[in-house]
Design a protein that fits this description.
The structure holds 2 protein chains of 2 kinds. Chain A is α/β, with parallel strands linked by helices. Chain A has 13 helices and 11 strands. Chain A: It comes from Plectus sambesii.
Amino acid sequence: MIDDLPPHIILKIFQYMTVNDLCTAHRVCRLWNSMLTDWASLLPIRHLRRIEFNHEEKRMPRKGYWRYDGVRVAVMCWMRRMLAKRRRRVSINQIVAVEDCHDGSACFREGAESHMHSNPTDPALIGKRLTHVRARGVYIADWRPGLSSLLEQLASADLRLTKITLHQADMSGVVRNDLRLLFEKYAATLTTVNLCNLRGSAGRVVTDAVLAAAGDLTKLYVMAEEGRPSLNEHGLMPVFGFVTDATVDRFARRYNDTETRIQTLMLSSCAVTARGVAKLAKAWSLARAPGPCSVILVDCGVTKADVAAECERLDVELERVGPDGHFAIKHDSQAFKVHLLNVT
Amino acid sequence: MIQLCSNDDPPVSFTVPRKAVELSKTIKTMLEDLEGFDMEQTPIPLPNVDAPTLELIVKWVEQHQDDPPPVEKPRVEDDDSDDSDADDDQEPEVVIPEWDKKFLPTDDEQKNQLFKLLNAANYLEIKPLLDIGCKYVADKISGQTVEWVRDYLNMENDYTPEEEAKLKEEIAWAEGL
């Protein structure tokens, strides 16, 4: 029976399925659900592309676009890979999704190739629409050109943004500055920032986000492009990272100077090193009144032993807590936790 | 001519032209390793393949022995300097040839045979056969309900009703895409 087939044949079957069929497959049984989740990044992107071609005006996910679970991560992986292929005649060149975080009903999205070439969406119009739906979050992906004026529009609109997601953008010069202004404008309300596959001085954007949105920003997610998955290893290779030691260093230095209360820092497939993590832990432990902080490293290639060794060198005492084997240090009853996911 | 033996007791043997049997990478490698021996006289036992499956395999390789070998596309490294308008590096769509459509054991009561065939194609490393087989199964499942897929593949639903409801709700948005 099908149970007798080796996993790679099942994978092959999955690879010929469309997104809709994969959604069905997730529900067939636990084994398939976990296989599909593990293999999300190995599944081809063509099906999603087809869907995007045919359905331009459909709903966005109601919630939790970035949660690491089941189908969402699958679609997210397709999406990321597809956007990474933008140079190669991929259908989506721009997507703007607006989520009304109150009830999730006022979502809309604009996208598809036609906008890019013949009918670029007017940023002023977008600003108006955002105000109209009282948007609380923006999702901007692969928005070129005119990202700068879009960010300006967002900064001048009268909104109460709590969530900014920026995917696949060039962060050089003026754009970075516009983004910084946007962070500053919504410093009082912003709680979550997602940065994914940014190019240019992306590392500094991370710092900008932390510094500008002092106080309420509690979640900062940074993801880099994942490497070409290797079928042989059934795993991912962390490459294309842009968060370097220097970034974390800056982040750590300023941790003490600002009222930053980052509670979750997730770095995925970033070129962060064990030393960077240790520095961050050190900065946290020296801060006057640190809140709880979780650093989640996904596919970063940093091992527990590395982090432990670097922490020792910097005199940071890491204790091992929790059944999942993450690290933690305690300070004034608050904890700094380091979670390492997908480490080989 | 090469003789292949099934795993039945007593084994059923098939005589196949060498050219056809070499569509199987496993056997091709084996024959190359045993160069110098008189393989025409030595039947090759296939411990993982039973007679009905082996019969199908033999039919398929004989039909396809004159096919041009598949073109192995070199993997292009995906570095950022690559700004060309090259096509996507996706695998090409597999198209099941007409002959194969009739050949595949596609009746519902034969589905066990289909999976046995896939397993044998995997063991014998006959990639084109494996490709069309997998494509066929994927197409078969396409557009069907969860219950239908479970029934077709004889799979047990091991979710609790609560889990199932939750999963359904979670992916509902994707189904509307």
